[in-house]
Amino acid sequence: MISLLLMLMMTHSAAKPPPAAKAPAVRSDVELREVIESYLDASERPMPDAQWQALGQRAEPILREIVSGDALPTRRARAVNGLVALAGQSTPAMLAEFSLDEAKPLSVRLAAVRGLSRLTVDSELLAALRPVVEGAKDPRISSTAAELIAQRVPESGCALVRAKGASDLHFQRALSACEGR
Amino acid sequence: MPRATFLLLATALAACSSSRTANLGENCTVATDCGSGLTCYAPIVPGVCTQACANASSCPSGSACAPLVTSVGNQLCLGSCDSNANCLAGYTCCGALGNVCAPADRCSGMLTVIIPDLNCTPRSLVNGGVAGPPAQPASCQKPVVSTTFNGAQLQVLGAQTVGNVIKFNVPAGTGTISILQQVVDAGAPDTIVLPVAGTVPNAAVPFLLSGPDGGVFYSDDVVPNTDLSVMEVVLAPEATAAAMILPNTTQALSHEAGGYPAGTWTMQVNDYAYECAHGDPTTIGCTGGKSTQQYDIQIVTKPVMGATGTLDFGFYIVSDNWTAASAIADPTEVWRRTLDAIASIYAHAGICLGKITFYDVPAWAKAAYATAVNANDANSCGTLDQMFTLGQPGGAIPIFFVDDIQASASANAGVVVGIDGAIPGPPGAGGTVHSGALVNVSNITATTNCVAATSFRTCGPDEVGYITSHEAGHYLGLFHTTEFDGSLFDPIGDTSQCALSCDTDKDGTLTGPECNDDSSTTASCGGADNTMFWLITAQAQGLFSPQQSRIIRANPVVY
């Protein structure tokens, strides 16, 4: 089983545990932006929350600017991931807005929906995601919100999931999560 | 000189003095037609004399430095113009390139990359129809797939119980040995539990692999050398279906000269559950052991590889934004640019693209997988592995294009751009739980920041091509040159490494700027330009090292 040693080390899947958070030795806003841009570079693993948090709240306005800019959609979505990790006070409202913004790329909107779920406690989740389930025109967005509701608050949310998704294949996972509820 | 007159004057001069060499902007057929320091850029006949340039000031008056990726350089001095009337016959005044005279088919902003020293026949695009069953299977699929190879190249040893010692023949002149283990009747557990590591995949891995004279090529009880490049083979074990392909290290490439030892080789069929059941010292305290499971064993051998080869791809369109037909037709040409990027990257390995087969998948599969694959789910019955079972038989590299990929472990959640099914993928065996790689295709229409020169970090089609190439590199047996924290390097001696000491901002993550010293192949803070670096950075150039290239060409699916 020596090969296990290698398996545990190699990150061909994204399942490797996040590294310990270390604040980068950043001195200026320019350097901070460079670090952020490098964290947004595409890869097979997300940047761990702790890595974003180590940058501090100074990173938030830069990330907001990138999310609304013209970078590649996955780059903007990773900026959303960073904002979620930083968990600023106004971030949930911003994520709710992004979730329903039909002009935003799919990747950004999905990152916003998932991020909104992460920042919302169970007791408020249905209220936070109901507008997305009911209002998003793209079924990939609405079904993702429905699935998050079905997984976390099935008792209160499955009626909405069934009503919205009964005839749409995209809602199959959400409906499966509601089975027996 | 007004820029509009530059080429007209050049043409007139050329007409008056046919015996002299041509100046910049004049017609040519070969480089020797042009004057000192110039070369002939000839995507059409006749070509035009030109030179590579770094910026506008490096071109003579009346010409401009145009972004045009060619075998001459990434930017060329081309004659400036105001209209087509200023240009030579066959050339157009191209606004997209900055008002220069360029061949009409190079003026779209979606330009074909010209690959030097590799005479590839044009790749073909084929619509393969719908892949996968019309309805979602009710249970987890773990199919046993027959490889596409046949004749003397293939040895089918059938169902073998773990612990069996099996024999197979290696012909003289063999440069590649591939061993494919696939669980029979889903009879092996997916995982076992170890006291130290917790739940781990029940990897299907040979216990011992020996050559004709008893020389050991792999033992699962030998601690790997710190420098993996000196090992005969390095594994990233997988449950259910797993391939071991030799060579994948620098040491293994030493067998290139005469091939692997010819004769009868032996191998003990094994997985972790068997080791657990039999009390292997490395599994003390484990649970989940079993010793009756069987694996289907297929051995594929291949003669020592040549300097070039051809690779086929299977593109599975698991996206609500595309179909196989729309991707092939694609009037926006973003798929063509993506394929150009892949072709330019694999040209570094001496590889041409052959047949690209586009597949649709059933509606249920799009709904199930387009945005829902969890990259962290290593379970054979999870979304990632089950999607791969849609793959069709054959030797094409299966790439599944989806609209979104999430890694969703707590505190480590977010978007990822691609993920491989296994390193290496089962060669020639589409449809197993590890037969494929996943690519996030959501950026492919993001062309706002595309210019003529390839830009892997900012141009969507180029980025998708880069990700596809990276994931295909894993499928072909390549590891990351450097992992994100500098804790591990690939088993290849001629790729640059980037150690943790290169982490100048001390954040524990090695980024492009920190791994950009490629002043030599032994630089200690390099590798960001390599296709298999862990991150796609501004320094990415889509390179493969010579040894990486040889390992790619050794893969059985390269022909």
Please tell me about this protein's structure.
The complex is a heterodimer of chains A (181) and B (559). Chain A is mostly helical. Helices cover 64% and strands 1% of the residues of chain A. The longest helix of chain A is centred in the middle third of the chain and has 14 residues, at 73-86. Chain B has 4 domains: 3-106, no CATH class; 108-139 and 306-477, 3-Layer(aba) Sandwich (Collagenase (Catalytic Domain)), CATH 3.40.390; 151-303, Sandwich (Jelly Rolls), CATH 2.60.120.380; 480-548, no CATH class. Chain B is built from 9 helices and 27 strands. Chain B has a 6-stranded mixed beta sheet with strand order 8-20-19-22-26-25. Chain B has a 4-stranded antiparallel beta sheet with strand order 9-18-11-16, with no helix packed on it. In chain B, strands 10-17-14-15 form a 4-stranded antiparallel beta sheet, with no helix packed on it. Classes of the chains: A mainly alpha (181), B alpha+beta (559). At the A-B interface, α1, α2, β1, α3 and α5 of A face α6, β23, β24, β25 and α8 of B. β1 (42-43) of chain A pairs antiparallel with β27 of chain B.
In short:
The complex is a heterodimer of chains A (181) and B (559). Chain A is mostly helical and 181 residues long.
SSE sequence of chain A, one letter per element: HHEHHHHHHHHH
Strands of chain B, count: 27
Q: What structural class should be given to the helix and strand makeup of chain B?
A: alpha+beta
Q: Classify the beta-strand content of chain A into a percent band.
A: under 5%
Largest beta sheet of chain B, briefly? 6 strands, mixed
Total number of domains of chain B: 4
Helix content of chain B: 10-25%
Termini gap of chain A: 43 Å
**In CATH terms, what is the architecture of the largest domain in chain B?**
3-Layer(aba) Sandwich
Mean pLDDT of chain B: 88
Number of helices of chain A: 11
State the major sheet of chain A. Answer: none
Q: Stretches of chain B where pLDDT falls below 50 for ≥5 residues?
A: 1-18, 109-116
Number of helices of chain B: 9
CATH topology of the largest domain in chain B: Collagenase (Catalytic Domain)
Helix content of chain A: 55-70%
The end-to-end span of chain B amounts to 54 Å
Structural class by SSE content of chain A: mainly alpha
Strands of chain A, total number = 1
